[in-house]
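ok so i was messing around last nite and threw this chain in just to see what happens. nothing serious, just curious
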Amino acid sequence: ELKNLEDEILGSSDKAIELEIAIFNKIKGVLYQNIDKIQKTAKSVAVLDALLSFATVAKNNKYCKPEPLPYGERLELTASRHPVVEKISKNSFVPNDVLMDNDDNRTIIITGPNMAGKSTYMRQIALINILMQAGSFVPCREARIPVVDKIFTRVGAGDNLISDQSTFMVEMSEVAQIIMNATPNSLLILDEVGRGTSTYDGLSIAWAVVEYLNNELKAKLLFSTHYHELSELENVLQGVKNYKITIKELNGQIVFLRKVMRGSANKSFGIEVASLAGIPLSVTKRAKQILNSLTKNDVITEKGVKLVEENEILDEKSESVVIKTLKDTDVNNLTPIQAMKLICELKEICDEQN
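result:
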């Protein structure tokens, strides 16, 4: 009796494995007989899940039904928004309109300070195109969107140490891929092309790239830049339009209004943005002094930098003398002759500096 019990215990493990294999083979047989039905059911559930997600997002975020258009038609977006930024931003998202075609409005050059929203504006246009072609509603009040065959982007900056490529080399390689592979039915997003090299080289490359894409390729192009000279292309090339991100200067600081308007920005406000980022006041103040001198002299040399330092020191001394004189003057007790004499003296101080 004990021997039988021993055999039963020792063989139970093998019998369990045999039973599992038999059940598994039976399940495989049932699945094999119904594989077509299972695959159709899985596909239907996946489509239903995607459509339900589209519907939920569209309803909760007030998306609109876009009007799909054929290749090359006009792109018109009213009150378009970035589907991700508007959800994670702590501030109220500012919607913007878009008008592009393959004729008079095929190239949009966007200028404005850093952090103003240039990249966000361009990316939301690309995302809205992708959403439309995926069958989703889009974050706009109204939308008429042509189909595109490809969307190319050159956004951000980064090197490739493994391939021994600098930031500028990576940037130029990506621009080359766009030039060689884009078609007139593509949507192109280029963000600050040419910034990775010297000013004149970068400006020349950016200018030539815009010229080629606008004149030869004739695809819809969004091109953001800090090279304000590129705004001249609107008067030179047919199809180019200038747009800017609006800001407001208030008490020496800038307020980002995030609204896109026709026209070009006349300043990049880089020093003001640096101040917002926490750069010490002494550094930004010095940066403004150097900027003013470089703007006047348009030269950067060792001698030029030294001259900037000397001139700015004299400017500060001259300014302090003028300010001290004005503070010490009782304007209420000045006669017209005395006031005229004081103005002449202060002007002489300024003229001596100049």
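not much to say yet. The radius of gyration is 33 Å.
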